[in-house]
Amino acid sequence: MASCTSRVRAPSLAAVLLLAAGAAAAQQAPSTVFRASALEVSIGGRVQTQLNTTTVDSVPTAELALRRVRLEANVRVNEVVSAKIQPEFAGSRVSLRDAYVLFGFHPALQLLAGQANRPFGIIQPTSSTRIIPVERGVRIRGVRNALDEHNLVTDLGYADRDVGLQLLGAPAGAPLGLSYALGVFNGPARAAVPELDSYQLAARAAVRPAERLRTGLSWSRRDFLVVAPTDGRELAAGQAWAVDVEYGTYGPGLHLVGEAAFGDVNPRADIDFTGAQAWLAYRTRAFGPSLTHLEPLFRVSYGDVDAPPGLTVPRGGTLLTPGINLYFGPLNRIMLNYDVWMPEQGDAVGSFKAQFQVAF
């Protein structure tokens, strides 16, 4: 996965907006910057600067990168209609992360139309301002095909953002605090073979069996492009399942986030994957006006690809990450990690990461 280096050219308008938003955050101004009648527009954003190293000899040892530079506009038109737009400025061009309209007919029934995360798993949809480790999966310069659990589900297109329609809600009085989300999306095959009809389905249901315990079950079905011996290019359906659990919150105390997934890599060739990832952290109670919390953490992520004998495919491996987060308020922090990637084939590699985050 390519990194976004510090040689970033963002439009001048973006720079002005970032400076204005940063000044507002420094003065602890309210997030709503414009209000007219029932219309409310709230501006937020994040800047994440990262120092990372790698033990791979073929690339430079250290790099400074703008990992994420995002502005976020949340618009509330009335009690039913709202919208969100989140552009990304880190990189060689501006891109869109989230861009959707939400019709909140009832807490039990809401319609989301546009680009957002597919409802699959718990790790990918968690905001980058709150994730416990620096990265959700293996991201080390000089390393390719690093298939831990997160990279498997995102590289295969079961998780991550896509354009689609979603129905979601949390019915009042539902057993165990049931919530749900299901959607239909363009799917990864749409870009690869635009001449063929393709789509993707995804769904997730979650319950809260105890006050600090939440668990969910996800399913995703997508079209894969396959090469048939007689008919040439065609589509084949693959699917994946995920189960997730979370104990605790993104606040003081013990916090555990876990996810396990399995599914198809190539449905025609009978190639499957399995994987699991867990984050464990403990955030201290607030103890100072500047450095407010410390959060030691440990992450393990495992992925495996199961292919018939004779096929040469990446086989996955295990990622271990000890680290600590230093908080200067709820979302502003310095994150220190050391990733150790141990592939099933090849030598282990390491990467130290220090990420400096301001979010407002």
Walk me through the structure.
This protein has 360 residues and is mainly beta. The protein contains three helices and 17 strands. It has a 16-stranded antiparallel β-barrel with strand order 2-3-4-5-6-7-8-9-10-11-12-13-14-15-16-17. 7% of the residues lie in helices and 55% in strands. Strand 5 and strand 6 form a beta hairpin.
Q: How do the strands line up in the largest sheet?
A: 2-3-4-5-6-7-8-9-10-11-12-13-14-15-16-17
Supply the helix-strand structural class: mainly beta
Order of helices and strands: HEEEEEEHEEHEEEEEEEEE
CA radius of gyration is: 21 Å
- Biggest sheet details: 16 strands, antiparallel, barrel
Beta-strand fraction estimate:
over 45%
Total number of strands? 17
First CA to last CA: what distance?
27 Å
Shape annotation: globular
Report low-confidence residues grouped into runs of 5 or more. Answer: 1-30
**Number of separate helices:** 3
* Mean pLDDT over the residues: 90
Roughly what percent helix? under 10%
